[in-house]
Amino acid sequence: MATYNIVLLPGDGIGPEVTAEAVRVLDADAQHSGHAFIYNEQMIGGCSIDETGSALTPAALAACKSADAVLLGAVGGPKWDNPAAPVRPEQGLLALRKGMGVFANLRPVAVHPALANASPLKPERLEGVDMLFIRELTGGLYFGQPKGRTIVNGAQRAVDTLEYFDFEIERVVDLAFRLAQGRRKKLTVVDKANVLESSRLWRQVTGKVAERYPDVALDFLLVDTASMRLITHPAAFDGLVTENRFGDILTDEASVLSGSMGMLPSASLGDEGPGLYEPIHGSAPDIAGKGIANPLGAILSAALLLRHSLSMPDAARAIETAVYEVLSAGCRTADLGGKLTTREMTDRVLEEL
Predict the structure, then answer these.
(1) 215 inside domain
(2) Most buried among 15, 59, 103, 200, using CB within 10 Å?
């Protein structure tokens, strides 16, 4: 019997609640398929700051790097929401991504027909929406040096550096092309090449990588135009690859197409080593502890874990199909206008499985 080591990082707010439900689904899969999961729970974010003074301890990072996969809940909350604080929960996320070498964040965005009315967009604009964002995750503005504050002639000066190396761009773009080959063979690079030198480097490197994938149709789109077309013509997109900061913003914009951020999963992958899986939503402290959070983003993240880290596509597809069926049957948590609790929604998924 195969045994897999999964590190759990429940984090803050609703993170522990939705992570627990994803574990229930993983255990159901293990029982059916005849393998076993060993869970190793570690701290990240605000809870880790309170306990250790660090948003991610070296021991927690080491556990993640030696696991078969990592499942993350969410981090942060008002308790730690102080921009001037020397240690913030988000620092744990950045250190985790960098330390694990997961340079590509995959965020699929598809609209379930039964949830079309839950989106702020007109249902007719949502027909056929099925896109995959590939966001570069360990470079760019969030990691560039130098950064910090100085006093210049009595005025405060803040500096953040947007920096990319060609190899950082090539590896994520190459992955995006490979993923596009398994989809509708369309890839859009989102940048700001009319202003930014880093974006011009993205275009140069992408053009060279594209020569290896002649079957994939490639186009480039400025980020401001892309942000508009995500709302006006979302079904026109297939695969989208972009740098770290643009990807952070655009994927949150795209999440409203599905009707709720609680619906969407993500996978963060590197060249080797374990993948990192998490729902895209935040810690939602306003509903933490109430048992009403939507667990589907975490459950679908567990499906991505099975597919990408454990090479179990059939098990992943079974979970995704179960989620599709319960939504088709009208099952809803509060964020989707329903009354099911977090646990009750998972119960429905397990029944369908």
Answers:
(1) yes
(2) 15
